[in-house]
Design a protein that fits this description.
The protein has one domain: 3-Layer(aba) Sandwich (Rossmann fold), CATH 3.40.50. The chain is built from nine helices and five strands; from the N terminus they run E-H-E-H-H-H-H-E-H-E-H-H-E-H. Strands 2-3-1-4-5 form a five-stranded parallel β-sheet, with helices on both faces. The radius of gyration is 17 Å and the shape is globular.
Length: 204
């Protein structure tokens, strides 16, 4: 598994994060999600909270981006630009992938590692399936869950489309797109692994 690197893009509520954890567990390789934020913060010297607030988010106009060119050493980390945070996190993602193996969740990992041999997967699911999952997980009403899903998907797509100049979730950009509602969490993880092995992207 030394050279196995899997990137997971996912619609909110599709179970992508849990599926990624299942893949990592079955293959015995580490899965990186919030860990990416911690490592980026450590390596940059900025606070983890700053990266958490900006995680997979992009403001078309933000004070951080506006003041970044004039940021001084004493200005505090609240003035780091979105682009600078993306660069720091990208460097961390590349470092993890080069050392491998790894399963990387979101954060434009597929694009950042486009010059490496990776298995790029996008996990989706119908809205009604995602609403049920979010209602159960967050204790929300169906309307609240749908609103949250739409907002999260919009945020992720805006972030991805801006930094990659590609379209988030578009099938042509991935090796495999899969609907998690058909086979469930474990079944989807199994199919991704089977596809990866057949494609030569997961090596035993």
């Amino acid at each position: 598994m030394d050279h196995t690197v899997i990137t997971i893009g996912r619609q909110f509520g599709s179970g992508g994060g849990i599926i990624a954890q299942q893949i990592g567990k079955r293959l015995g390789i580490p899965v990186y999600d919030n860990e990416l934020i911690s490592r980026a913060a450590e390596e940059s010297g900025f606070s983890k909270e700053l990266f958490t607030r900006s995680d997979e988010k992009r403001s078309l106009f933000s004070l951080s981006g506006f003041f970044a060119p004039w940021r001084s050493a004493h200005a505090g980390d609240s003035f780091i630009s979105d682009d600078a945070m993306f660069k720091i996190q990208s460097d961390v993602i590349r470092e993890i992938a080069e050392k491998g193996p790894a399963v990387l969740i979101g954060r434009c990992s597929d694009y950042i590692l486009r010059d490496m041999e990776t298995l790029d997967v996008f996990i989706s699911a119908p809205m009604d399936y995602r609403i049920r999952r979010i209602c159960e997980r967050e204790g929300l009403s169906e309307k609240e869950a749908e609103t949250l899903i739409q907002r999260k998907d919009k945020t992720r797509s805006t972030y991805y489309n801006y930094y990659t100049l590609e379209t988030w979730g578009e099938a042509a950009g991935y090796d495999l797109c899969i609907d998690s509602s058909i086979l469930g969490i474990e079944g989807t993880a199994e199919q991704i692994i089977a596809f990866g092995k057949a494609a030569g992207r997961i090596r035993e």
